[in-house]
Design brief:
about 200 residues, mainly alpha, Helix Hairpins, minor pseudopilin epsh fold, 2 domains, three-stranded antiparallel sheet, about 50% helix, globular
């Protein structure tokens, strides 16, 4: 059974950057719905015993087009939100260390530069979607944007997302309305780079 990641903070602890009502709605309703639907579809597909990433990485093996599409959307929603919420903190580490920082400097020049690239990818995403920082098996880093609930796994890149910036309207509209860029700027105030670093090391 697939479960929502447990929040490492109270619903109001990310304020003023992300408000309590948004967390309640985003986590308690949207993410919960993706999780419920993904469990139902995975059961129907006979894949409930598999890892979510394994399911998303082998969608082509699902012959039923409707079921395949459902797993991509609901499974992506489950996976992406688990990643997103797991990296938020009211007392975040504002920078990574060790190998991740080395790789960021090597690939992008600086931490500020990778944040800028991720922000631009998120702000420039047409409609709903995400920007991701992902790593391949060799530890190389990539910044990409994905529509809807897609991610580098379901897109067949072979890369593992380690940071997800959600720009679906439900992630920010209650507080920021149409000012997506304002939300993206505040996202960096609650992103815990220590968590991102842990995910990089586990990939």
């Amino acid at each position: 059974m697939f479960n929502q990641v447990e929040l490492g903070f109270a619903m109001d602890e990310l304020e003023p950057h992300i408000d309590k009502l948004t967390i309640e709605t985003h986590y308690g309703k949207h993410h919960a719905a993706y999780t419920k639907m993904f469990n139902e579809l995975a059961e129907k597909a006979g894949a409930a015993d598999k890892d979510a990433a394994e399911i998303l990485g082998s969608l082509d093996s699902i012959s039923d087009e409707t079921l395949r599409k459902g797993l991509r959307n609901q499974g992506g929603g489950y996976y992406n939100h688990n990643l997103y919420f797991s990296t938020l903190s009211p007392k975040p580490a504002k920078a990574p260390t060790g190998k991740l920082l080395e790789k960021i400097n090597e690939a992008f020049g600086s931490l500020d530069e990778v944040k800028d690239k991720l922000s631009k990818a998120a702000i420039g995403q047409f409609g709903s979607g995400w920007s991701f920082l992902s790593a391949d098996k060799e530890g190389n880093l990539f910044v990409t944007a994905s529509p809807n609930q897609d991610n580098p796994i379901s897109e067949g890149t072979g890369r593992t997302p380690i940071l997800a910036l959600d720009v679906w309207e439900h992630a920010y509209y209650l507080k920021y309305k149409n000012l997506r860029a304002d939300y993206v700027k505040e996202f960096w105030e609650v992103l815990d780079w220590k968590k991102v670093e842990e995910l990089y090391e586990k990939r």
